[in-house]
């Protein structure tokens, strides 16, 4: 392919296109192996045995499904059948970050989508993204995105007004502002 570099840099458009298509055909015909497959680690001593990706995937699926809920490390460890120390090590090895950093990144990602796609108040977005209070959400958001949630939203509002179809209900409040009766529920309070 290196011999085709001159053709790729040619001033003639047809020659560049022809070289590009030839290279793509060569790549399509050549055998390949996914770089992130467990077999990519088989030659290393002490590398993963092949079961770790399944374990990590179970934890990632659990985090993705329940990011808005409080998740305990013990629940994640149980899903992966690993100790806390092993889970932390596998996260660092496979994802390059801690469990907490990954969960924060997932939550911030969902918050970004809601900030850009809805006109929900930041406090409601914080709650729906799994943050217990708005100040923690603002601090974490600014650390990850290097801007405030309001400034992040303004970037999208300037480009186009967000949809109003997902408007917060007037009764929806942050958990820290809810009374015990609202958190427990009137029917649960009678039985408890």
Could you characterize what this model shows?
Residues 163-192 are annotated as: Disordered. This is Transcriptional regulator, AraC family. Keywords: DNA-binding, Transcription, Transcription regulation. Residues 57-155 form the HTH araC/xylS-type domain. Helices cover 60% and strands 0% of the residues. It is built from 11 helices and no strands. The longest helix has 19 residues, at 99-117. The protein is flat. It starts with a helix and ends with a helix. Residues 34-49 and 161-168 have low confidence and may be disordered.
Describe the biggest sheet? Answer: none
CATH superfamily of the domain at 103-167: Homeodomain-like
Fraction of residues in helices?
55-70%
Strand tally is 0
- What is the top-level CATH class of the domain at 103-167? Mainly Alpha
**Low-confidence stretches at least 5 residues in length (pLDDT < 50)?**
34-49, 161-168
Distance separating the two termini = 73 Å
Output the structural class: mainly alpha
Give the helices and strands as they follow along the chain. HHHHHHHHHHH
Multimerization state: single chain
Q: Average the pLDDT over all residues and give the rounded result.
A: 77
CATH topology of the domain at 103-167: Arc Repressor Mutant, subunit A
Shape: flat
Q: Rg from C-alpha positions? A: 24 Å
The amount of beta strand, in percent, is under 5%
Number of helices: 11
CATH architecture of the domain at 103-167: Orthogonal Bundle
Protein name: Transcriptional regulator, AraC family
Keywords: DNA-binding, Transcription, Transcription regulation
Domain HTH araC/xylS-type: 57-155
GO molecular function, one term: sequence-specific DNA binding
């Amino acid at each position: 392919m290196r011999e085709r570099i001159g053709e790729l840099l040619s001033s003639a458009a047809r020659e560049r296109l022809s070289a590009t298509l030839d290279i793509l055909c060569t790549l399509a015909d050549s055998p390949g192996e996914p770089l992130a497959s467990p077999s990519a680690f088989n030659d290393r001593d002490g590398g993963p045995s092949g079961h770790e990706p399944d374990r990590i995937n179970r934890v990632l699926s659990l985090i993705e499904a329940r990011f808005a809920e409080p998740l305990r490390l013990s629940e994640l460890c149980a899903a992966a059948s690993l100790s806390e120390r092993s889970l932390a090590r596998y996260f660092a090895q496979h994802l390059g970050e801690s469990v907490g950093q990954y969960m924060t990144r997932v939550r911030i990602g969902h918050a970004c989508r809601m900030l850009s796609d809805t006109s929900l108040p930041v406090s409601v977005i914080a709650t729906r993204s799994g943050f217990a209070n708005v100040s923690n959400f603002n601090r974490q958001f600014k650390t990850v995105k290097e801007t405030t949630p309001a400034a992040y939203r303004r970037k999208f509002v300037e480009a186009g007004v967000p949809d109003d179809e997902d408007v917060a209900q007037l009764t929806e409040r942050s958990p820290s502002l809810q009374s015990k009766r609202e958190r427990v529920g009137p029917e649960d309070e009678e039985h408890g």
